[in-house]
Write a structure and sequence with these properties.
The protein is mainly α. It is built from 6 helices and 2 strands; from the N terminus they run αααβααβα.
């Protein structure tokens, strides 16, 4: 497993640790006019679900994957989908989906190159996963900042 995929998987440990937090903490906005930790995890889950179902199955050498969906619409749809779930249910959903996604991405050969949407950039599995490792790090940092308050 490449370094980026290991980091991608390790996000699960940090998210799993959120199960120890109070419901009050999980529902508190991470900053003024921002999502709660519950919503951040839901957001991460829904992107994983998209990658797992729409992108990962189509990764092959020379393939052009679908472009990423409109981020705002995608995020809104994801939050609406889990509106009735508790924070802990969303954490479990994230953990289950991330595990499946890691297993799926592990199967992709390091030599495969593919493109996304109309872009010209050719991605390896490592460069593709790096996008999401950075995305995870951004959101985990937000949660960690809230913990310090």
């Amino acid at each position: 497993m490449n370094k980026q995929l290991i980091q991608f998987q390790q996000t699960m440990d940090e998210v799993k640790g959120l199960k120890e937090k109070s419901t009050e903490f999980l529902l508190q906005p991470i900053a003024k006019d921002k999502w709660s930790t519950r919503e951040v995890v839901a957001h991460m889950y829904y992107w994983d679900e998209y990658i797992l179902k729409q992108m990962a199955p189509n990764i092959a050498d020379g393939e052009r994957l679908l472009a990423f969906p409109d981020h705002d619409e995608h995020n809104e749809k994801g939050l609406e989908l889990v509106k009735d779930y508790t924070a802990r249910q969303i954490i479990d959903l994230f953990l289950e989906t991330r595990e499946k996604l890691v297993r799926e991405l592990e199967r992709v050969d390091d030599h495969i190159r593919f493109m996304i949407g109309a872009g010209k950039r050719r991605f390896s599995i490592e460069s593709f996963v790096t996008i999401f490792v950075r995305h995870d790090a951004h959101h985990l940092k937000q949660i960690q900042e809230l913990e310090k308050k």
